[in-house]
Specification:
- Helix 3 packs across helix 5 and helix 5 crosses helix 6.
- The protein has helices spanning 3-17, 27-44, 48-57, 72-83, 88-99, 114-125, 129-143, 160-165, 170-176, 188-212.
- It contains ten helices and no strands.
- It has one domain (3-212): Orthogonal Bundle (Hypothetical protein af1432).
- It is an all-alpha fold.
- The protein is globular, with a radius of gyration of 17 Å.
């Protein structure tokens, strides 16, 4: 199959697979990551084909929604690519990107290729700004998490193990992840795109906490 055909086939597959997601990891998240990934990859001169495929497949099975299983996403992506008879280099590269996508506290990106860095940056960008705020609370509602409790303090220095198991609040999630993203981005292009999104989060938190404390 031609490249455009395989991209469209993969997009159609993911659109159907994620159609009913209500956790913030839905098709429209994937769609935004796909197009942000293309934008970043073009500016950074990465392999656009690999970036598109990895962007489309990056949430084929997010570990947070599959009992912490970090192998299921890369495995399902590999099976999809094998089913379309991709070259071995792509069958290896795309799952490797997906396996290293997740945010890790107190740890820099483990992406080895510029393509992986572009996809990770696109995913991280969709976790901040106005949409990032909406996705944060959508995921909290999906998981049944508390929105805010001033007695539960955020811990931005969690270890990776504790981060994955921590029972926190959605407001704390801003301090434990979302506000840290800007400085974890891999590419110059993404860092520039992140600036207004990061500022929006800071403004939101100031407004939220002022309203919570009945100061305004």
């Amino acid at each position: 199959m031609e490249k455009e055909e395989t991209i469209q086939k993969t997009a159609d597959y993911m659109k159907e697979k994620l159609a009913k997601d209500s956790s913030g990891h839905d098709w429209w998240h994937t769609y935004r990551v796909w197009h942000l990934g293309r934008k970043i990859a073009t500016a950074e001169k990465a392999d656009l084909y690999v970036v598109e495929l990895a962007s489309l497949l990056h949430d084929i099975a997010d570990y947070k929604l599959h009992n912490g299983d970090e192998e299921i996403g890369p495995r399902l992506a590999r099976e999809w690519l094998q089913g379309l008879s991709f070259k071995q280099e792509i069958i290896s590269h795309v799952p490797e990107i997906i396996s290293n996508m997740s945010f890790k506290p107190n740890k820099k990106s483990e992406m080895k290729t510029i393509e992986g860095k572009c996809v990770q940056d696109a995913d991280f960008l969709d976790a901040i700004g106005a949409i990032g705020i909406a996705r944060c609370f959508a995921f909290g509602g999906y998981k049944g998490n508390i929105m805010h409790n001033p007695k539960i303090k955020p811990n931005p220095n969690l270890t990776e193990k504790k981060y994955k198991k921590a029972e926190s609040t959605q407001i704390n999630h801003f301090y434990e992840k979302l506000l840290l993203i800007k400085d974890r981005l891999n590419t110059k292009t993404a860092r520039k795109l992140a600036e207004p999104r990061h500022k929006f989060i800071e403004n939101f938190l100031e407004q939220f906490l002022n309203e919570w404390d009945l100061e305004i």
